[in-house]
Amino acid sequence: SFPVRAVFNAGYEQGEMLSSIRVGLAALNPRVEAALIGLGDQPQLRLSSARGVVEAWERSGAVLVIPSFENRRGHPWLVGRSLWSRLAESQTARAFLHGCAGQIVYTQAEESVLKDLDTPADYAEGLKNLP
Predict the structure, then answer these.
(1) Cross-strand pairs, 80
(2) How confident is the model over 84-99, as a mean pLDDT?
(3) Fewest Cβ atoms nearer than 10 Å: which of 1, 45, 79, 97?
(4) How many CB atoms lie within 10 A of CB 56?
(5) Which of 131, 117, 124, 121 has its CA nearest to residue 41?
(6) Are 112 and 44 in contact (CB under 8 A)?
């Protein structure tokens, strides 16, 4: 098991998701080689999907691995340290991914990599579909 620690993004109200990613990456130990970027509103994400991303990174040595379901990108994606500064300097996560398109290795996953819960109705529906 790995230790987990929460890092607070004091500018969360003014920023978007990328501002939280920046704070999280900056808090990681310098020995960390890659980071798994996930969404906080994906409680139904299957462990096998996250493991599949990590395993694809270990097999391929890629600097950017993204799960895919029916040709749609999902979360969590894995970013190697060599791309962290580029990610931090990007305007949005989407712009970063677009700029790194040639470096992405996709791994097939199941549908939970696409789902997030943005409303109370989404949450109630998501609870019904937990593994």
Answers:
(1) 34
(2) 94
(3) 1
(4) 19
(5) 117
(6) yes
CA atoms of 127 and 119, how far apart (whole Å): 12
* Distance separating alpha carbons of residues 30 and 83, to the nearest angstrom: 14
Mean pLDDT, the chain, whole residue set: 89
d(CA 53, CA 110): 12
- pLDDT of 1: 56
Q: Which residue intervals of the chain are DSSP H helices? A: 17-26, 47-60, 84-89, 93-99, 120-128
Residue 9's φ and ψ, nearest 5 degrees, are -95, 100
Contacts of 131 (CB under 8 A, 6+ apart): 44, 46
pLDDT band with cut points at 50, 70 and 90 for residue 35: very high
Distance between CA atoms of residues 72 and 74, nearest Å: 6
More confident: 116 or 20: 20
Q: Could you tell me the pTM of the whole model?
A: 0.86
128 pLDDT higher than 80 = no
